[in-house]
Amino acid sequence: MTEDDRVESWFRSAGARGDDLRRIDALVRAAAPDLGRELVAVGAGTMLGYGLLPYRTRSSSTTTRWPLIALAAQKRHLSLYVCAVEDGQYLPEARADRLGTVSCGRSCIRFTTADRVDTAALAELVRDAAEGTAQGRNEFFAG
User: Smallest Cα–Cα separation from 139: which of 93, 98, 84, 101?
Assistant: First the structure.
């Protein structure tokens, strides 16, 4: 099975929320077309990751790969994680007021449907995260 087949199966496994996941996936891919896309195992679940990069937590002695952006279907909502820090601020947290009717944590944007997201603002955030990372300005992935 190809990665695209596995991703399509992941969308289908989300049931009715698969269409919302597909819409956000299309937005991310259009805003940051150079980021690769693959499924990433996290705990007992799976996320759709974009732009996997080398990453090591402060408490680990080994380096792993972690997505710059990841999309997940949670029990009650959808989550888009954007691991981009510039000038000491996570981009989702810094731009929460522009993203629509969503809930934001430091790196997480939570929403119940794609219709609740300001897609222009989200596309700009994704584009800025990808460009800032490519230019070495993303403090999240800095050693």
Answer: 84
